[in-house]
Design goal:
InterPro entries: MFS, MFS_dom, MFS_trans_sf, MFS_Transporter. This protein is an all-alpha fold and about 400 residues long. It is about 80% helix and about 0% strand. The chain contains 18 helices and no strands.
C-alpha cells in the first residue's frame, strides 16, 4: 500500500510537471506578438488579424491533436501518449526558434500546439483516475500548474526582453522542461483511465444527453473567457494603456498568478461549496471585471482588474471538466478529449474574433466583447443547477 501511494504521488507530481510544460510552450508567445510583428511584418508590421492568427493556429492544432488521439488513448497506453506529447512539444519549441518567416512560424506553432494538445488530452483523465474520490479538487490542482507554467514562461520571456535576448533563444531554453519531464515519466507506471470491469460510456450515448451538451457549450465559454483576455493582454497593456512590452509581459504573469491562486482556492472551496454555484459566482464577478478592464478609470485599475479576472475566471474550465467526469465517470479519455477540444475551440476562435473586432473598432471594444462569454455561461449554469435537481444527473459525492 505504501509503495502504491508513493507511485501514485509521483505520477501525480509528474502530471503537474507535464501540465506546466505545455503551459510554458503555449504562453510565452503572447509576450512576443509585437516582436513577431517587427520581425515578420516589414515596415508596416503584421495586422491585428495576422497576430490573432498565431494563437488561433496553435489552438486549432491543439484541438486536432485532442480529437485524433483521445479515442486512441482509451484503447492504448496512457504512458505512450504522455511521452509522445512531450517529444512533439519539445520539437515544436525547436522549430519555433528556427522560423525564418511568418508562414513558417504558423507551421511551427501548429507543431507545438499538436504536442501540447496530446498532453492536455491525457493529463486530466489520468489525474481523475489517480484521485477518483476528489476529482474536482484534483483537476483544479492540475490546472493550477498550467498557470504555474504560464507564469514561469511569461517571466522568462519578459526578463529576456528586458535583457535583450531574442524570442528564438527563449524558445530553445524552454525545450529543457519537456525533456526533463519525459525522463521523469520513464520511471513511472500509470493506472487504467476507467474501471475496466464496467462498460465505457460511448460518445454517441453521451451526445444524446442534454446535460453533456450543455457541459460542452459551457466549457467552450469557459475557455473563451480565459484566452479572450490572456492572449491579448500584453498587447492591450502596451498599445491600449501605453506601457512597455515588459510591462505587458509582467501583467500577463500577474494574470497567470491570479489563475493559479484561483484554482488552488477553488480546490479548497469545493470541499464546502458545490461546483455549479461556485462557477456561477465566478462568472458574475468576471463579467463585472471585463467592464473595468475595457473602460477603466485609470490604467492601473485596468491592470488590477485583469489580474483579478484571472483569479475569478480560473476555475471555470477545470471545474466543468470535473462536473462532467462526476456525471459520467466511465466517459474515459474520449469524453475528456471532446470536452477539451470544445474548450480549446473557444480558446482559438474568440481571440481571433477579438482581433477581427479590433480591426473594425479598437482593443477596448474587442475585450469588452469577451464579456459575453461569462454572461452566457451564467445562463447555462442556472439551467444545469435546475436540471441536476430535477434529474439527479450528478451523483452525490
Amino acid at each position: 500500500m505504501k509503495n502504491l501511494f508513493s507511485q501514485n504521488s509521483r505520477a501525480l507530481y509528474a502530471c503537474y510537471a507535464a501540465m506546466a510544460c505545455l503551459a510554458m510552450a503555449l504562453n510565452f508567445l503572447p509576450v512576443y506578438l509585437t516582436s513577431f510583428s517587427d520581425t515578420f511584418g516589414g515596415a508596416s508590421g503584421l495586422t491585428a488579424e495576422q497576430l490573432g492568427r498565431i494563437p488561433a493556429v496553435m489552438f486549432l492544432s491543439f484541438i486536432v491533436a485532442i480529437l485524433v488521439t483521445g479515442p486512441l488513448a482509451d484503447r492504448g497506453s496512457a504512458m505512450a501518449f504522455i511521452l509522445i506529447g512531450l517529444l512533439i512539444t519539445m520539437a515544436g519549441l525547436g522549430v519555433v526558434a528556427c522560423s525564418p518567416s511568418y508562414s513558417f512560424l504558423l507551421f511551427a506553432v501548429a507543431v507545438m500546439g499538436f504536442g501540447a494538445g496530446v498532453l492536455d488530452m491525457i493529463l486530466s483523465p489520468i489525474v481523475a483516475a489517480l484521485q477518483p474520490d476528489r476529482r474536482s479538487a484534483a483537476i483544479n490542482w492540475l490546472h493550477a500548474f498550467f498557470c504555474v507554467g504560464a507564469v514561469g514562461a511569461v517571466l522568462i520571456a519578459s526578463v529576456a526582453l528586458r535583457w535583450g535576448f531574442s524570442w528564438r533563444i527563449v524558445s530553445l531554453v524552454m525545450m529543457a522542461a519537456p525533456l526533463f519531464t519525459f525522463l521523469l515519466f520513464l520511471r513511472l507506471t500509470l493506472p487504467p483511465l476507467i474501471d475496466e470491469d464496467t462498460q465505457r460510456d460511448s460518445m454517441p450515448a453521451l451526445i444524446r444527453q442534454p446535460f453533456f451538451i450543455v457541459c460542452l457549450i459551457a466549457i467552450f465559454l469557459g475557455g473563451a473567457t480565459e484566452t479572450g483576455l490572456s492572449q491579448w493582454l500584453p498587447t492591450y497593456v502596451e498599445q491600449g494603456l501605453g506601457y512597455s512590452k515588459e510591462a505587458g509581459g509582467f501583467t500577463l504573469a500577474g494574470f497567470s498568478v491570479g489563475m493559479a491562486l484561483g484554482r488552488m482556492v477553488a480546490a479548497v472551496l469545493q470541499e464546502h461549496i458545490p461546483p455549479v454555484p461556485l462557477m456561477l459566482g465566478c462568472c458574475a464577478v468576471t463579467a463585472v471585471l471585463f467592464i473595468l478592464i475595457s473602460f477603466p478609470p485609470s490604467p492601473v485599475i485596468a491592470i488590477a482588474a485583469a489580474i483579478a479576472a484571472g483569479f475569478s475566471g480560473s476555475c471555470l474550465w477545470p471545474t466543468m471538466l470535473a462536473v462532467s467526469a462526476d456525471a459520467y465517470p466511465q466517459g474515459g479519455a474520449t469524453m475528456f478529449s471532446v470536452l477539451t477540444a470544445i474548450g480549446n475551440a473557444g480558446c482559438s476562435i474568440v481571440p481571433w474574433l477579438v482581433g477581427v473586432i479590433i480591426n473594425y473598432s479598437d482593443i477596448h471594444i474587442g475585450l469588452l466583447a469577451v464579456m459575453a462569454c461569462p454572461v452566457g455561461m451564467m445562463v447555462l449554469l442556472v439551467w444545469m443547477a435546475r436540471w441536476s435537481r430535477g434529474k439527479a444527473v450528478i451523483p452525490p459525492p
